[in-house]
Amino acid sequence: MYDFVIIGGGILGLATAYRLLQERPGSSLVLIDKEQRLAHHQTGHNSGVIHAGVYYTPGSVKAKLCKQGAERTVLLCEEHGIKYERCGKLIVATDAGEVSRLRGLEERVIANGLDYENISSQQLREIEPNVAGEAAMLVHATGIVNYTDICNAMAGVIREAGGEIHLGTALTGIRESDTEIVMESDKGEFIARTLIVCAGLQGDRIAMMAGIDIDFRVLPFRGEYYKIAAARGELVKHLIYPVPDPSLPFLGVHLTRMIDGSLTVGPNAMLSLGRETYSSNFPVPGDMADMMSFPGFYKLMARFASAGLYEMRGSLSKRVYLERCRKYCPSLKLEDLEPMEAGIRAQSVSSDGELVDDFLFLETSRSLHCCNAPSPAATSALPIADEIVSRALRKAN
């Protein structure tokens, strides 16, 4: 019997195992994932940004965890020799309305204690000749990294500490008694005292498998990116973000430098017709049936109908997508946008159609399920893991 079984080989599951073995050395622990490699889903399709915490309500848990997470991510990279760069984020206002919203965002940046700099249109032309705007704000702490590298480093530490990692192992059932919890899989049974689930896109299904009555579902949102042609790879020196539009539930397309030297633009935010349809958005019957049978789906679609149409136009037309990018990077051309695999974000939605914007933990006597870890979960993975470990140890005791 294991002390702990963790389901999920993304950054949150790995960070939980990593921190658990630091807090409770000598524990018997196994992490299982149905994929053949770590970080196969959200983590491996992440934009690679180490977020500073610009957008979050001052004093909120999200703001605190993001700032702590950014600092701890950098420390972990330095400890394990993982390449990262603090290149900074430029939030660019392209008209008077956006300039006004940018000033409001500045108040939040100050309240969150972030190092920043106001940039005039002339200064913007000097530091980013290919970017156009009326004003900008440079947030220095924002950085870039490959989160898969971080996952692999944590996996190495987990194994060195005696933890096991079983990949290609699909969960098929959960049985719980007063003394143990049994995870049935296609590779046999795993018996533990405590189960921790960090399963992202499959989190609601595993909660139901554990016998929990839930009033939410995970809806998959597809983030479609383009890679910028290598010949234009030196287009920008910073990350280039738009000023958030309050009418849209997601941030909008932005230019992102990657740690491997490439440059991407995106993502949009389209409802995905499958939970794991990365290469194309063809309907997956089981996933579609889950969505269509959930009342919250229809309420969400009604609430964000105009935003959905806006995103759909960009998804269906590369030219429309380009024009949104050209708003702040006018030199981009259609031939600069090259295909790139999409990412899929797990978004928990309540039965009344609300986006769950906070952490959602569900429990049985022997299991703890992290059913929603709001963005930026990759940046905040270590402090989020602290909370999961704290809850799990209370349960184990």
Commentary on this structure:
- This protein has 397 residues and is of the alpha+beta class.
- It has a domain at 1-84 and 144-215 and 352-397: FAD/NAD(P)-binding domain (3-Layer(bba) Sandwich), CATH 3.50.50.
- 33% of the residues lie in helices and 26% in strands.
- The chain is built from eleven helices and 22 strands.
- The strands form five sheets. Strands 1, 2, 9, 10, 11, 12, 21 and 22 form an eight-stranded mixed β-sheet that branches. Strands 6-7-5-15 form a four-stranded mixed β-sheet. A four-stranded antiparallel β-sheet has the order 16-17-14-19, with helices on one face.
- The protein is globular and about 65 Å long.
- The two termini are 16 Å apart.
- The relative contact order is 0.18.
- The mean pLDDT is 94.
- Tell me, what's the shape? globular
Measure the end-to-end span.
Answer: 16 Å
Strand content: 25-35%
C-alpha Rg (nearest Å): 21 Å
Please estimate the helix content.
25-40%
Can you tell me the residue ranges where pLDDT is under 50 for at least 5 consecutive residues? none
- Look at the structure and give the mean pLDDT: 94
CATH architecture of the domain at 1-84 and 144-215 and 352-397: 3-Layer(bba) Sandwich
The main sheet comes to:
8 strands, mixed
* CATH class descriptor name of the domain at 1-84 and 144-215 and 352-397: Alpha Beta
How many β-strands, per DSSP?
22
Tally of DSSP helical segments: 11
CATH topology of the domain at 1-84 and 144-215 and 352-397, by name, is: FAD/NAD(P)-binding domain
Helix and strand topology:
Blueprint: E1 2-7, H1 11-23, E2 29-32, E3 49-50, H2 61-80, E4 84-85, E5 89-93, H3 96-111, E6 116-120, H4 121-127, E7 135-139, E8 143-145, H5 147-160, E9 164-166, E10 171-176, E11 181-185, E12 188-197, H6 203-209, E13 216-223, E14 226-228, E15 239-242, E16 254-257, E17 263-266, E18 270-271, H7 285-292, H8 295-303, H9 305-316, H10 318-326, E19 337-339, E20 343-350, E21 360-363, E22 367-372, H11 381-396
Parallel strand pairs: 1-2, 1-12, 2-9, 5-15, 12-22
Antiparallel strand pairs: 3-8, 4-8, 5-7, 6-7, 10-11, 11-12, 13-18, 13-20, 14-17, 14-19, 16-17, 21-22
Helix pairs in contact: 1-5, 1-11, 2-11, 9-10
